[in-house]
Amino acid sequence: MSSETYSPGGLPGSAPGTLHGRGVDEDHENQIVRFLSKVNKGIQEFLQDETVPLVLACVDYLLPIYKRVNSYPHLLEEGITGNPELSKPEELHTQAWAIVQPTFQQAEKEAIDRFREFSGNNQEQASDALKEVVQAAYNRRIDSLFVALNHQQWGSFDPQSNTVQLHEQHQAGDQDLLDLAAVYTVLNGGTVFAVEPERVPAQSPIAAVFRY
Q1: Is residue 194 located within the same domain as residue 172?
Q2: Contact between residue 192 and residue 182 where contact means Cβ atoms under 8 Å apart
Q3: Does residue 137 form part of some domain?
Q4: What is the pLDDT of residues 31-75, one digit of tens each?
Q5: Cα–Cα distance, 62 to 30 (Å, whole number)
Q6: 3-state SS assignment for residue 111
Q7: Based on the structure, what is the number of domains in the chain?
Q8: Distance CA 184, CA 167 (A)
């Protein structure tokens, strides 16, 4: 078995920040498992109810060990192998995006299909009416939301009365209601697809699939 160096923040029984080799004994592997279990716990606390895909970046022999202790349901099978400390953040981002892009594309396609199905057969489950979408976003009803990039719709929303006012031009105290709907959707656990206008599956800069 080859010798490699990995620095996962320092493991008990090794030099600070260093883990030597694949040929570790059982006790040392148990130390790795305990360390990665703590990493998993931290990730769970950080992501909580998120559904974003998780990509591991580590030396290859740690991938299967981490998968044994992982409890985050959206960990992707493929990871970025090699010592991540030797890569620049933008390089890791490029490699991670190549892995997660198909997942996002598939999720977007499924959301488009649901919107089109509900728009034709069950209109209570989907809408491209901005007022209704803003209200639904605030009330935690939105599962998936499409918002057109580089579009604004000025207006106001009063959560207490659940009323939306649309304005043709920006007025004092106005908000971009497209952005507001996106923020409420994310805060309430929904998925937002910020896309080019032609990719919104409606004759509107916004389209939503409801949870109920």
Answers
A1: yes
A2: yes
A3: yes
A4: 999 999 999 999 999 988 788 899 999 999 999 999 999 999 999
A5: 12
A6: helix
A7: 2
A8: 20
